[in-house]
Structures are given as structure tokens and as C-alpha cells.
């Protein structure tokens, strides 16, 4: 009988020890500690493997004696679960850039996944604390990672912690944006261009009957814009006005309007005599000097009339045409075709 | 048959043994009622249906829960500042002028000649009633007490025969009530509640699983001289059960630059997939070429869920589109905000160099996987839905971009609390002018989610 009792007692003892050993992890029995509140980790970049800055913020729920803080990077936030360091993470060279709230800490030790700060023991308050570490290398894997933050009364993060909580951060894919800007030469000419090239209108100018006592004039326009690094030139091309073998003299060099003389000329300015033309607008180009004086006109086939030294937004040029004839001008239908050519230097 | 057998057994016993047994039974019948019931006096009897209800059975040192959070006085987890509610029923019709509630480690009085003896009473270790400063409530047959009792803090009851430790008002083991002696009928049901407040409380014994007792003695006068009905009640502290269950901090955040990576979130808020070139985006026509007279947009996506209680903020970080060290496409609102590209958002204007972004609430690609209520875009980044405009006629969609985000990430959306499964669509605009230098322009925009737990 005594033997049976002892055997039963032994079995109960073994069972009790077994329960005592295995149960706590399952029902979460652990020592009492305060949680950290308003806690976060702010990473300056979420790129995997990036060398960046990690900033921790938290408050103590209740004042505790603090002599050391431990920041332990894991793939799981729960204390009691074995901490597995995130792949690629390395905080062994992290630098404590700044600290606020509970201060006076210095780095006691670092490993690839753990930073321990130490200071003389002092009672915390419940205000916000921040600790910023630079030269921290992010985990390499896309997805979340966690940092277990714990405070200790000991100076080396030994013993039981008095406060503990975890924070979560995330490594994510960066958005790589690619866009190509092509070589651009935006150029058009027409009698009128109210807005952009899509509004270009007209290719014929009728100067009506030429008289020796009256100047006939009109205008056309061209737009030019380019991203050519070396700018652009606009040439005017075409003969002076003619009717068979009879011609009207192309004006050269620039001269004022001469009523009663044989004269065909252009400029790219606003004029008063006659009242025709407009100053160029927009862009960063220039009118070539020959054609850049108000009330003076010239024409030479092939001349550059406008240019830009470099890239230019869209500029609008207005070309003024004047025609004078003497009383001896042979009758006929005088005409010409003027072509503008823009060349950009990329 | 069975009784007959037993009788035969008795008959067979020796006569001397029978006599001795008879004498013992008589003595027992005489003495035990005196010792146990104390009903020696016709003027007093044991109170009936008596109980004491504790607001907390935690030991008297406990004021916080396992997480260190303070427990309010009078709540179940606070053993230091408890309330006790006594209920009992009078047996004898008699005057009641005063009542002593005396707390001891044993309920049995030593002298029962006229009710409980007021002798030895070991105060429960750690117990303290000296902090009771009022009667929280009292009832008589469920209603108001006809002649209410008041807490007696002036009468000294520290010596024999009362045995209250300390002198008023520092009676650590007694609560004493008095009133003008008033008749109370038999079967009167009384309740008295004490403590449970921040500055008016009873502290439990300091040990777990420790029984303690209150001896209730009524007096027919208010001089504590003539005993009336009496009785004891028992209470006990108990080991608290600290239950811990852990919920992980959750911050699920994923980013993709292609609509094909935006999959249904399902019940688990599946992250955006990373298959293919999930992070690569082409801004422009089908060949990735921008135009000075046609606006081009593109979308990237992020998906977020988090159990933060302090909210989540999603930041972006990056530079504007650049080609080499010198050529760039200006941030869209930099022209209107010289010196700072923050500020109000700007509309897309083809023909003007612009790079910007914003949340597009109308983007059809997420197929309804939109930002949850409570997770909202920052003001200047919240109106990127709409038209992109034409040359000379800006669109209705508004964008912004801060080149300073390269060093100080800028918030694009945030919440004040937890975020259910949210999928955000970020729309990018790329406009150029004719003078925008030719070349391949690139940038990398990084999105960062920060949760406050």
C-alpha cells in the first residue's frame, strides 16, 4: 500500500513539474511590465537594404527607473517569441544622432540587429521620448519588420525589463519612374497663327493693286520652339516679287519705306510707317539685326531673320511685308513664294 | 429491522460505557448551544442572512493591472481601495443605537455569555478601515433608514471590552456607527456600504487567498454599553488571475507601379504583388515619351492595413524627374510657390514643365479597393482626379510635389486610428515645354508608412 502511494505521489510530482514547465508559454504568464505608449518607428526611406535613419518615439505609461534601453529588430514583435533578425538588417554601425525626453544615453553595445543604450539610472516621466539613429541598414526583404523596445533598471539591459512594446515598419517597393523627352522642333508658319500651330491659317497674301503713291503691306507669322541645346535659326527663302522678267527691287541694306520707289522688304518689328507688324512674343529667340529695326525694311533671299541661342519656349514672330513701285513699273501680276526654314542645333 | 439490530448492539454494550455516553450527550446538549450560538440572552440573538460583499478580492497592495495601468478605486482589480457592503437581518425586536463592525482574523468570539466577547481580535495583516470617512449608503428593509446612522469617529473604543485597534479616527480594524437609539422590529433587513472611493476606502488584507472576518455587534443604546443582536461574516482575498493575450503590431504596406499588381485584397488584405516589374513605371505615350502639347499621367498603388491606435501616415520621398545633373522637369507647384514647392496644389497645364502627384479617388484600376473612410489624403494631394487639360487650358486635376521630400519625406495620406484594408491610387503627371531638354528623365519615389501604436 505504501509503495502504491509513493508511486502515485511520484507520478503527480512529475506531472506537476511538467505542467509548470510547459504551461506558461501557452497562457502567456510573464513578469509584469508597463507597455510603451504612442510608440512608432519612422524610417527615412523604405527601400530594402538602404542606409538610412531610424527614429523611435514612445512614452512610458508609468514612470519607471531607466538605465538602459534596448532596440531589438526581429521578424516578430512578440516578446517571448525567439527573435529572428530580418535579412539584410545591420545596425551595428548605427549612430545615435539625437535624443529627446529621457536623455543622457550613449550607445553601450551594438550588434547587427540590436542596439543597447545606457545612462545613469533615473526615473522616467510619461512625456514623449525620441531616439534617432543614422547609418542603419534596412532589411533587404520587402515586407514588415519589427523592433522590440524594452527599458531596464540595469545599465546593460540585463535582468527583467520594466517596460516593453514593439513597433512595426515596412520595406516596400520604390516606384521607379521613367519618361523620355524627345528632341523637339516646333515650327509652323501661316498668314495668321492665333494660338498654336494647330490654329495656323492661310498661305496667300493679296496685296491688291500696286500704286506709285501708296505702300502696300501685309503680314505673316511663324512660331518656333525647340529644346535644341544649340538653338535655332529661321531663314527666309524666296525671290523678290516678279512678273515674268519684271521685278520689284529687293531692299538692301535696310531702309525706310520709300513710296514711289521699287522696293520689296520685310522686317519682324512693330512699325509706325507704315502701321504694320508686331513685336515677337514668347520664347527666348531674337530677331536678326537686319530685320530688327522698326520702320526699316530689307530683303535678301536666304537671310536668317530670327534665331535662338538655346532651347526656347514657343515664340511668335510677325513678319511685315511692304511693297512700293514707281510710276514706271511695268504692268503685270507680281508674286513670289516666301519659305521660312527653321534649323535647330541639337 | 436495521433499527432493531442497532438496539441489540447497544444492549450488548457494557453498562458503564452506556452511562458514560449518556453523560457526555447531556453535557454536549448543555454546553454547545452556549458556546456556539451565544443565545444566552433573550435580548440578543445572532443576526440572520448576513453577508459582506467586497468590491475587490485583490490583496491590499494591488492598485494596478498586469499591464501597470491604475485600477479605479472600488473596481474589482483594486484591493487597496475597496468597498464593503454588509447585509444582515435583525432577529430581536429592540432598540438599535450603535453598531460596531470589527475586522478580525477569526470570527468566533471568546466569551459568549452575553453575545460575542469583545476580547481578543487579531486584525488581519494589512487590513485597514481607518480610511473610511463616511457611510456610502444604508438601507432599512430596502428603503431609507428611518433614523439614519452616522459614522462615529469620536468615541474612543480602543480598550476593553471593544478591542478596536487604535483610537478614532485611526481605527484600523473597526467601523463604528451610531444614532439616537431607535426601535427596530425583528426581521429588519439592514445594508451598510463603506468605502470604494479614492479618499474613502477600505484596504484589504495584504496576503492573497487570506480569509478575514467582520464581527457585527449591535447595541440597544448609542453608548456601546448594552449589546443587541450580533453575528460574524467571512470574506477572503484571492489570488488575481492575470490573463495576457498578445496582438501583434500590424503594419502591412505594399507598393506597386503597375495595375496588374493590384489584386483583390481578400479577407486578409493581401499585399500588392511584386511579380514582373512591379516598381517600374513609364510616364508618357506608349513608348514613354512626353509631349509639350499632350499631358501624360500614370498611376502607382499602395495597400495598407494596420492596427495602430495612434494612426498611420504614408509619406513619399523622392526627387522630381531628372536627366543628369542639370536637366529636370520642375515640380508642378514650384513656380507658384517659389522657394518652397509645398503649398496649394496646381492644375495640369500641358506645355509647361510639370511633375506632380496626388491621390486619384476616381481611378478605376483598384476596382473599388479604395482608401477606407478615416484614411484620407493630405489636402494638396487629395484632388488628382479630373481632367489634365490642353495647351492653354489647364485641367481640373490638381497635383503637388515637394522636392524637399528627398530628405524629409512628405505626408500624402494619414489616419487618426486603425486602418482597414485600404488601397490607394497615386496619379502622376508629366508635362513638358518645347524647351525641356531632350533626354531620359527618371526618378524613384519611395513610400513610407509609419504607424503609432
Explain what you see.
The complex is a heterodimer of chains A (346) and B (453). Chain A has 346 residues and is mainly beta. Chain A has two domains: 31-171, Immunoglobulin-like (Sandwich); 185-344, Immunoglobulin-like, CATH 2.60.40. Chain A has one helix at 2-27, and strands at residues 34-43, 51-60, 65-74, 95-100, 106-110, 114-123, 128-137, 143-152, 163-171, 175-181, 185-190, 216-226, 232-237, 242-243, 246-247, 255-256, 263-267, 286-287, 296-297, 304-308, 312-324, 339-344. A nine-stranded mixed sheet of chain A has the order 4-7-2-1-9-8-3-6-5, with no helix packed on it. Chain A is rod-shaped and about 120 Å long. Chain B has 453 residues and is mostly beta strands. Chain B has two domains: 36-236, no CATH class; 251-451. In chain B, 7% of the residues lie in helices and 32% in strands. Chain B has two helices and 24 strands. Chain B has helices spanning 2-11, 15-37, and strands at residues 48-54, 83-89, 94-104, 137-140, 150-151, 174-184, 189-195, 211-219, 227-236, 251-256, 280-282, 296-306, 312-317, 322-323, 327-328, 346-347, 354-359, 375-377, 389-390, 393-394, 398-399, 410-415, 419-431, 439-451. Chain B has a five-stranded antiparallel sheet, with no helix packed on it. Chain B has a four-stranded antiparallel sheet with strand order 1-2-7-4, with no helix packed on it. In chain B, β8 (211-219) and β9 form a beta hairpin. The longest helix of chain B is centred in the N-terminal third of the chain and has 23 residues, at 15-37. Chain B is rod-shaped and about 110 Å long. Mean pLDDT of chain B is 85; it is low at 1-13, 16-42 and 110-116. Chains A and B meet through β1, β8, β9, β10 and β21 of A and β10, β11, β12, β23 and β24 of B.
